[in-house]
Specification:
Mean pLDDT: 77
Shape: elongated
Domain Exocyst complex subunit EXOC6/Sec15 C-terminal: 411-545, 556-714
Low-confidence stretches: 141-159, 232-272, 718-725
Organism: Cyprinus carpio
Strand order of the largest sheet: 1-2
Radius of gyration: 54 Å
GO biological process, one term: intracellular protein transport
Number of strands: 4
Strand content: under 5%
Protein name: Exocyst complex component
Number of helices: 29
Family: Belongs to the SEC15 family.
Helix content: over 70%
Largest sheet: 2 strands, antiparallel
Distance between the termini: 146 Å
Length: 757
C-alpha cells in the first residue's frame, strides 16, 4: 500500500512539473515567480526532480536550435558571399563616378556646346517623328503598317487575302485621299492594283491545288459514302464479296432534293464523317470571295465549271480490264460517287458557284456514259458470281446517289439487262452440271434397302407412289439417280436466280415473274437440250430413257408442271374488254410444251403421241375447271373474250403438230369442249343451241346444259354494272325476256337430265 501510494504521488509530481514547464514556456517572465514558488512549496526534494526535468527540456531545445542553424547555415554563407561581391562592385562604381566628375570638370566649353547642339538635333528629330506618326494615323490604322514593306507583308500573310482586300479598299477610298499630297501615298496607290493581282494569282493557285487534291481522293470520298449506304441498307449489300452458291451445295422523275443537310458517312468504326471532314473546301470559299470582291466572280465560276467538266470526263473513263475483277468496278463507282458528293456540297454550301442546272447536266452526261460502260463491260463477264457482285455494287451505287437527289431509274432499268446476262451465265453453268449428271448416271432403278434410304431419296425428290410404298424392303424406285439430282439442281438454280432479284426495289409479283421466266428457260432450253443430246447418243436407248423417267411418271410430272403454270394465271374476270393478245402465262406454258415434246423426236411415235395427247387433255380440263370454279362468282364478256384468245393459242399449238404422227385434227379435239362452249357465248347463239340440243348434228353437241347454265349464271352482276344484262335492259327490253327464257330452258334441260338419270 505504501509503495502504491508512493508511486501515485510520484506520477502526480511528474504531471505537475510538466504543467509548470509548459506554463513557463508560454507565460510572460513577470509571472514566472509564483509558478516557481509552487515547486519549492511542494514535497521535499521535489525541486530536485523539477530541475532535472528542466535540464532535459533545455537540452531538447538546444538540439532543435542546432538543427535550425545547420539548415540555414549555407544560406547565410551564400548571403555573405553575395554581399562581399556587391561591396566590390560598389567600389568600382565609386571609381567611375569620380572619373566622370573629373572629366566634366576638365572638358572645354566648346565640346559642351557641341554636345548641347547634338541634343537639340535629337529633340528636333523626335518632334518630326511624332508629327509623321500623327499624319500616318490619319490615313491608315497605326497597328497595321509602319513602312511600305511591312504593309505588303501584313496584307499578304497576316490578314490573308479577303481581309487584305477589304483593307486596301478602305485605303483607296477613305484614307489615302486625306493625305494624297504625300509622295508615299502615291506610291501606295500605284502598288494596290499589283497587290490585287498577286492575291488573285495566289488564291487561284490554291484552287488548282484543291482541284488536284479532290481528283486524287474522290475514290476515298465515294468509298466512305457507299460504305455508309451498305451499313444502313440491306446487310447482304455490305458484304462486297457476296458469292452465289455452287450448284452442288445446299441451299423518272427528279426526286425532291433535301435542303442544306449533307449526307453523313460512316467509317470503318462507324465514326460519323461529313464532306468537310474528308475535304478542305476553304480554297474554294476563299477564291470565290476574292473574285467576288474584285468584281470578277463570273470568270471564276466559268473556270471552276470548266475544270470540273474535264475532271468528270476523266472520272467516267474506265480501265480497260475493269471487267476482270470486282475491285475494278468498285473503284470506278467510288470515283464517280466522290465526284458528285463534292459537287452536291458545293451546290448547297455556296451561292451560285454551281447551279442545279449545271449538276443536272453533269449527271445526265455521266449517267449515259456509266450505262454505256457497264453495258459493254458486263457483256465480257462469264462468271455468274462476278455478275452478282456487280449487281450489288450497282444497287449500292444507285442508292447512294439517290440519297443525294440524283435520279437513278435508268440504273435500275440497266439491272434488268444485267439480270439477263446473269441468267445466261447461270444457264451455261447449269448446262455443264446437267451434262455431268447424265454422264455419271447408270440409268438403273434406284435401289433402297431400308426405310432410312427411302426417306433419304424422297426428301430430295417429292416422289410418292402408294403401290411402291406397300412393297417390302428391299425395293427399287422407278427412276434413276439423275431424276432427284436434276430436281435438286433446278432448286439450286432458282435460289441462285433469286439472289439477283434481292434489293431491286421490285414487287413480289415482279420478282416471281423473273424467277418463272428464268426457270422456264432452264427447263425449256438448257435441260431440254441436254435431254436431246442424251437421246441422240447411240448407247442410250428407250429402255434407259424410260428408266430415267418412266413414261407414266413422266406424264404425271408433265401434268404437274402444267398445273404450276395454270396457278400463275391472273385473269381480271371483270374486265370490260380483252387485251387483244394471249396471256403471258399461257404462252410460256406452250413454249415449255413445245420444247419438251421436241425431246421425243427420236422415240417411237406411239410413246410421243400418248404423252402429247395426255398433256393437251390435261390442259383443256384445267382451263375448263378454272372457268367453272365455284369460287369464281362473276365473269364479264371481256373476260370471256380474253379466255377465248388463250384457247385459240392452245388450238394453234395442237394444229402445229408438236409431235408427228397425229391424223387430221385429232390433237385439236382435246379442246373441242372448250371451243364449242366459248363459241356459244361469243356468238350468243342460244336459239341454235336450244333447237338442236340432243341431235347428233348439233353445232354445240359437246356443250352440256349444266355447264352452259353455270357459266351464264356467273355472268349475272348484282350491281347491275358492266354486264351484258344491263346493256340489254338499256337497249332492248325484249332481249332481257329472251335471256330469262334461255335460263329457264337450260334449267329445264338440266332437271330433265337429272330425272332421266
Amino acid at each position: 500500500l505504501e509503495a502504491n501510494m508512493a508511486e501515485s504521488e510520484s506520477l502526480e509530481t511528474v504531471t505537475e512539473h510538466e504543467r509548470i514547464l509548459q506554463e513557463i514556456e508560454s507565460t510572460d517572465t513577470a509571472c514566472v515567480g509564483p509558478t516557481l514558488r509552487s515547486v519549492y512549496d511542494d514535497q521535499p526534494n521535489a525541486h530536485k526532480r523539477f530541475m532535472e526535468k528542466l535540464d532535459a527540456r533545455i537540452r531538447n531545445h538546444d538540439r532543435e536550435i542546432e538543427k535550425m542553424c545547420n539548415f540555414h547555415h549555407q544560406g547565410f554563407v551564400d548571403a555573405i558571399t553575395e554581399l562581399l561581391k556587391v561591396r566590390a562592385d560598389a567600389e568600382k562604381l565609386m571609381v567611375q563616378r569620380t572619373f566622370v566628375g573629373f572629366t566634366l570638370f576638365d572638358l572645354p566649353l566648346c565640346k559642351v556646346t557641341a554636345q548641347t547642339e547634338e541634343v537639340i538635333r535629337c529633340r528636333i528629330q523626335q518632334r518630326n517623328m511624332a508629327t509623321t506618326v500623327e499624319k500616318l494615323q490619319l490615313c491608315i490604322p497605326g497597328e497595321m503598317m509602319r513602312t511600305g514593306k511591312l504593309m505588303t507583308d501584313m496584307i499578304l500573310f497576316l490578314f490573308r487575302y479577303y481581309s487584305a482586300l477589304k483593307t486596301m479598299e478602305q485605303l483607296e477610298n477613305i484614307y489615302i485621299p486625306r493625305v494624297s499630297q504625300y509622295r508615299f501615298c502615291q506610291i501606295m496607290a500605284e502598288t494596290l492594283p499589283k497587290l490585287r493581282e498577286e492575291i488573285k494569282e495566289i488564291s487561284m493557285s490554291d484552287l488548282k491545288d484543291f482541284l488536284e487534291s479532290i481528283r486524287k481522293h474522290s475514290d476515298k470520298i465515294g468509298e466512305t459514302a457507299m460504305r455508309q449506304v451498305g451499313f444502313s441498307g440491306d446487310s447482304e449489300l455490305c458484304q462486297t464479296s457476296v458469292r452465289s452458291e455452287q450448284p452442288n451445295t445446299p441451299q423518272s422523275q427528279w426526286p425532291e432534293r433535301r435542303g442544306n443537310v449533307l449526307l453523313t458517312f460512316v467509317g470503318f468504326l462507324f465514326k460519323v464523317l461529313t464532306a468537310q471532314d474528308l475535304v478542305d473546301f476553304s480554297p474554294v470559299y476563299r477564291c470565290l470571295h476574292i473574285y467576288t470582291v474584285l468584281g470578277d466572280r463570273e470568270t471564276f465560276e466559268n473556270y471552276y465549271r470548266k475544270q470540273r467538266k474535264k475532271q468528270a470526263r476523266l472520272v467516267l473513263q474506265p480501265q480497260s480490264n475493269m471487267h476482270e475483277t470486282v475491285e475494278g468496278y468498285r473503284k470506278y463507282f467510288n470515283q464517280i460517287v466522290g465526284f458528285f458528293v463534292v459537287e452536291d456540297h458545293i451546290l448547297h454550301a455556296t451561292q451560285g458557284l454551281v447551279t442545279r442546272a449545271f449538276t443536272d447536266e453533269l449527271w445526265n452526261m455521266a449517267l449515259s456514259k456509266i450505262i454505256a460502260v457497264l453495258r459493254t463491260h458486263s457483256s465480257y463477264c462469264s462468271d455468274p458470281d462476278l455478275v452478282l457482285e456487280l449487281k450489288n455494287l450497282i444497287v449500292i451505287f444507285a442508292d447512294t446517289l439517290q440519297g443525294y437527289g440524283f435520279p437513278v431509274n435508268r440504273l435500275f432499268d440497266l439491272l434488268f439487262e444485267v439480270r439477263d446476262q446473269y441468267n445466261e451465265t447461270l444457264l451455261k453453268k447449269w448446262a455443264l452440271v446437267f451434262r455431268d449428271i447424265f454422264e455419271q448416271d447408270n440409268y438403273s432403278p434406284i435401289p433402297v434397302e431400308n426405310e432410312e434410304e427411302y426417306k433419304s431419296v424422297v426428301s430430295r425428290f417429292p416422289f410418292h407412289d402408294a403401290e411402291i410404298e406397300k412393297q417390302q424392303f428391299p425395293k427399287k424406285l422407278p427412276m434413276s439417280q439423275s431424276v432427284p439430282q436434276i430436281y435438286a439442281q433446278v432448286k439450286e438454280f432458282i435460289y441462285a436466280s433469286l439472289k439477283f432479284s434481292e434489293s431491286l426495289h421490285r414487287s413480289s409479283t415482279e420478282i416471281d415473274d423473273m424467277l418463272r421466266k428464268s426457270t422456264n428457260l432452264l427447263l425449256t432450253r438448257t435441260l431440254s437440250s441436254c435431254l436431246q443430246n442424251l437421246i441422240k447418243k447411240p448407247h442410250i436407248g428407250l429402255t434407259e430413257v424410260t428408266v430415267c423417267t418412266p413414261m407414266e411418271k413422266f406424264e404425271h410430272m408433265l401434268n404437274q408442271k402444267i398445273d404450276e403454270f395454270i396457278q400463275l394465271a391472273d385473269y381480271e374476270w371483270g374486265m370490260s374488254e380483252s387485251d387483244g393478245r394471249a396471256s403471258g402465262y399461257l404462252m410460256d406454258l406452250i413454249n415449255f410444251l413445245r420444247s419438251t415434246f421436241q425431246v421425243f423426236t427420236h422415240l417411237p411415235g406411239k410413246v410421243a403421241q400418248t404423252a402429247c395427247m395426255s398433256a393437251c387433255k390435261h390442259l383443256a380440263t384445267s382451263l375448263m375447271q378454272m372457268l367453272l370454279d365455284t369460287e369464281l362468282k362473276q365473269i364479264s364478256m371481256g373476260a370471256i373474250q380474253q379466255f377465248n384468245l388463250d384457247v385459240m393459242q392452245c388450238e394453234l399449238f395442237a394444229s402445229s403438230e408438236p409431235v408427228p404422227g397425229f391424223q387430221g385434227d385429232t390433237l385439236q379435239l382435246a379442246f373441242i369442249d372448250l371451243r364449242q362452249l366459248l363459241d356459244l357465248f361469243m356468238v350468243w347463239d342460244w336459239s341454235t343451241y336450244l333447237a338442236d340440243y340432243g341431235q347428233p348434228t348439233s353445232k354445240y353437241l359437246r356443250v352440256n346444259p349444266s355447264t352452259a347454265l353455270a357459266l351464264l349464271e356467273k355472268m349475272k352482276d348484282t350491281s347491275k354494272k358492266n354486264n351484258i344484262f344491263s346493256q340489254f335492259r338499256k337497249n332492248d327490253r325484249d332481249k332481257q325476256k329472251l335471256i330469262e327464257t334461255v335460263v329457264k330452258q337450260l334449267r329445264s334441260l338440266v332437271n330433265g337430265m337429272s330425272q332421266h338419270s
